[in-house]
Specification:
This protein is mainly beta. It contains three helices and 23 strands.
Length: 303
């Protein structure tokens, strides 16, 4: 496990960024500025909390989440990479790739001129990774904490072979009441309905949730929004590098079967994921680079 004291010496920022031992002994980055507070798990490269000054938390994390090596943390912003969903080759590898349950490396931290904190985490291929997925890569995750939360996932193929890439920011947004939530910006988009035998449908009006929802939206716009009247706020999602988005809520029966979700947690979150999923597959030629990015901001609900 990483040396917290050494990380603070190398990358700590007095008064703004501190490395701490989190739940399960996992190394975490605590950010505290005049603009926002945030908590980032170095394990999984996962933002677990983001609270702009005067606001409720943007993100939901389950009270029953696992904090142990080999397990994914349920909530925040898990990074799905280099595949989204089930193993595309049917080899029995875990869903959503392998970076969300591994330690990342810290490669940079700075306080910008604007008063934002910028953190860069990275991961490169190793013997262990090549045993799971045989390609050579250099992956970077850039996190900027300020008035908004900005994330960028940059993939570089430094091997001799091309590889297909699907990926996601699998973000769990904290909400006041799932029955009142509406996701706008996906009107008239075709989508694949995983909860209904992968049938292709077209979205009519805003997306609302009254049962299990698991949909891959295609031809999506760069701007989406979550209307959350119970918390009196709107969450803005501005993305780039994606043609698809996923909306997910497991509803009650599936939530009860998940050991890392409390039975009624489905009432308190919605996942609106910035993705390269379904047919939105990126062909990573040798030497190529690809950037998937998103910015989250909150309007309203000054607490």
């Amino acid at each position: 496990m990483m040396n917290i004291e050494q990380l603070n010496q190398e990358y700590g920022i007095k008064g703004s960024l501190t490395f701490v031992e989190g739940k399960g002994g996992l190394p975490m980055i605590a950010i505290d500025t005049q603009k926002a507070n945030a908590l980032i798990s170095v394990y999984g490269g996962q933002v677990l909390s983001y609270r702009p000054e005067g606001q409720d938390d943007l993100l939901f994390v389950s009270e029953a989440a696992y904090y142990q090596e080999g397990k994914a943390i349920k909530g925040g912003v898990p990074v799905c990479w280099p595949w989204f969903g089930d193993d595309p080759e049917g080899k029995g590898r875990g869903a959503h790739g392998f970076v969300r349950n591994r330690l990342w490396q810290v490669s940079g931290a700075e306080l910008t001129a604007e008063g934002d904190v910028r953190v860069v985490l990275g991961m490169m291929d190793t013997g262990d990774s090549r045993a799971i997925w045989s390609y050579e890569f250099d992956l970077a995750l850039e996190i900027i904490v300020g008035d908004s939360l900005s994330l960028a996932l940059i993939t570089k193929n430094h091997g001799q072979n091309a590889f297909p890439l699907t990926q996601a920011f699998h973000t769990y947004f904290a909400i006041g009441d799932i029955h009142q939530v509406a996701v706008s910006g996906l009107e008239n988009c075709p989508y694949l309905d995983k909860a209904d035998e992968w049938k292709e449908k077209v979205q009519t009006g805003a997306v609302t949730v009254s049962k299990e929802v698991d949909r891959v939206y295609k031809e999506v716009k760069s701007s989406l929004a979550i209307q959350d009247p119970a918390l009196g706020r709107k969450i803005l999602i501005q993305s780039e590098g994606n043609k698809t988005a996923v909306v997910w809520n497991p509803w009650d029966e599936i939530a009860k079967k998940m050991g890392d979700l409390q039975d009624d947690d489905y009432l308190r979150f919605i996942c609106v994921e910035t993705t390269n999923a379904g047919d939105d597959v990126i062909d990573m030629a040798p030497g190529s680079e690809y950037r998937l990015a998103v910015v989250y901001s909150i309007v309203g609900n000054q607490v």
